[in-house]
Recover the amino acids of this structure.
């Protein structure tokens, strides 16, 4: 009888069973401090022990290019696939993005060298404790003072102050965005429209100093994945283009250089049916006691009305606990989801309840988030397809 009861009413996923990112030794937040420490930049620490110092370092971040996607697409990305054994200092291992595995959070982790609980961009949308409103940290809406939201210096700023030639090469559209200011500022920004122009200029910027730290970025692969999915021909075409860009940059590296190819997250396609897309706006149980729904489909911050947090946690566990890791704010903090420390200013930005998808499911909000709810490819959680990112290496 006990066996039948267990089968009929499965236990919710244990919070402690979630695969926490490798903060402090193998996460995106550890990359730039490790490279900067190898160039003698004060205030930085070499946290990824597998990496060998270089005088000139270039990080090429390809939005949405997860480790699993490279492994699964050798035909479309032969150059990248051939570099898999070089990842993480020749160990052939990936990095972890950090939680949640989403662009604003990951870019802030890369640029500041800090985990989400410290830099304070812990999701796609989070509550601003000062206003009670949801803050979209990718689009920076509604606007709030960037330096107050993320007060720490970036690694690029530290490098520039230490006499390292620091530069970012990206789309001109990103030059003056608040996210760029809080996550990637420092040194010089160079806007170029095409991928080829960015690769060529990144190589030139590497050669511009005896010690150089250069960052370049490509976003369109992620856009193709969101709109069409990682199983689509459009996404595969973008991957083929990205593969050529990486090879183009690698073949132009000046002497004493290291190129690191990484990403902010991977991606999973989620079917369009009620089983895989649970609509918060149509589910009275999930809505009960909820004041604000933050985050994104696979990584939700849930903000309860005063006094209802325990009831919301119980309900979300009962409804979603077989498919999502569902934690209270304090449980998620204790488990280390957002890193080893949570700054005081960041604490109330985290949901009263935090839900991270294990299965290929989403919590959509068809009325309040129509565009996000229509995306084919999604990310945010701690599964390997989303969380694992490459650190492919080419040296000259």
């Amino acid at each position: 009888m006990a066996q039948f009861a267990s089968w009929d009413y499965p236990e919710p996923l244990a919070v402690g069973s979630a695969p926490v990112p490798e903060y402090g030794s193998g996460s995106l937040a550890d990359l730039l401090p490790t490279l900067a420490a190898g160039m003698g930049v004060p205030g930085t620490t070499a946290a990824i022990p597998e990496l060998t110092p270089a005088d000139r370092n270039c990080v090429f971040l390809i939005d949405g290019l997860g480790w699993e996607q490279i492994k699964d697409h050798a035909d479309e990305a032969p150059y990248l696939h051939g570099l898999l054994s070089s990842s993480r200092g020749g160990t052939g291992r990936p990095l972890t993005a950090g939680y949640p595995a989403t662009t604003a959070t990951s870019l802030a982790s890369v640029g500041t060298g800090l985990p989400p609980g410290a830099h304070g961009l812990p999701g796609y949308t989070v509550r601003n404790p000062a206003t009670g409103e949801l803050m979209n940290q990718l689009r920076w809406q509604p606007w709030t003072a960037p330096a107050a939201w993320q007060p720490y210096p970036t690694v690029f700023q530290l490098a520039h102050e230490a006499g390292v030639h620091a530069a970012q090469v990206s789309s001109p559209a990103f030059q003056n965005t608040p996210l760029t200011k809080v996550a990637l500022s420092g040194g010089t920004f160079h806007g170029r429209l095409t991928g080829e122009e960015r690769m060529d200029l990144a190589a030139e910027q590497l050669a511009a100093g005896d010690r150089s730290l250069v960052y370049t970025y490509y976003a369109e692969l992620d856009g193709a994945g969101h709109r069409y999915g990682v199983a689509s021909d459009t996404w595969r075409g973008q991957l083929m283009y990205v593969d050529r860009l990486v090879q183009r940059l690698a073949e132009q590296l000046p002497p004493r250089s290291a190129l690191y190819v990484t990403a902010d997250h991977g991606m999973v396609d989620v079917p369009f049916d009620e089983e895989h897309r649970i609509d918060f706006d149509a589910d009275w149980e999930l809505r009960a006691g909820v004041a604000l729904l933050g985050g994104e489909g696979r990584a939700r911050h849930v903000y309860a009305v005063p006094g209802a947090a325990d009831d919301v946690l119980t309900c979300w566990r009962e409804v979603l606990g077989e498919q999502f890791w569902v934690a209270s704010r304090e449980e998620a903090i204790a488990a280390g989801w957002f890193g080893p420390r949570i700054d005081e200013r960041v604490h109330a930005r985290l949901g009263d309840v935090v839900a991270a998808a294990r299965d290929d499911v989403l919590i959509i909000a068809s009325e309040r988030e129509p565009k996000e709810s229509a995306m084919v490819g999604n990310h945010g959680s701690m599964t390997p397809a989303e969380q694992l990112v490459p650190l492919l290496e080419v040296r000259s």
